[in-house]
Amino acid sequence: MHLAFYKYQGTGNDFVMVDNRTLSWQPDSVEQVRKICDRRFGVGADGLILLEELEGYDFRMVYYNSDGRESTMCGNGGRCVSRFASDLGMKKEEYRFKAIDGDHLARVSEEEVSIRMIDVQDVRQLENAVFVDTGSPHHIVFSHDTAQMEIVPRARDIRYSDHYRQEGVNVNFVEVQENGHLFMRTYERGVEDETLSCGTGVTAAVLAAFKQEKVGAHKVYVHTRGGELNVSFKPAEVGFTDIWLTGPAEFVFEGSIEV
Questions:
Q1: Active-site residue list
Q2: Which class is 123-245 in CATH?
Q3: Which CATH class is domain 2-116+248-258?
């Protein structure tokens, strides 16, 4: 069959979107999703997202990594699928959608898309790193000369270490800049390579930096190789609440592919 798709990107994190409100298509194998996301033999993307109907919500987001497996929450994917919903004519001031990690709110304007992330309680100090679960697991390493660093081999050593090998982890190298902003590069599990941006990773980096008193503001700007995002939050008695991830999310092109 010919599958209609729409390509979106949020600070360089790119996704194949499928309007699946009629439930007319479901991936029949890991290999099928992997082929669609392949940058040489398919459309090319960091992930595939299905927008589906769900009672009590404006839509449901179903997310697959480019390795073909359904995965945990994707922050930039959540922002892009909210833009997609708006472009499909589902015009609202605020969207309520469900993802694999729970409920989210989204606000879409011409310039940017904001989504409310889940509350975060799991922030753990490790040896020379911080672990934060923002709907996806993140290993945060604060570093210098992050722009010049060869992050992939270092990240793979961490991602495939005994501690993380079974479930995997996203590995983020974060540099605190003099103006209080962060610069971050991410290796994503499921993609198994560096991506230009990672929304749940940006969120994790900000919360880790605040927890370690490397930043003091409750709204922090993060520069990635694909663009700029910002994260606002409220510290809670345990962890963080009212966490919003904000940045651009843009339509790129549409087409169809034989599946």
A1: 74, 198
A2: alpha beta
A3: alpha beta
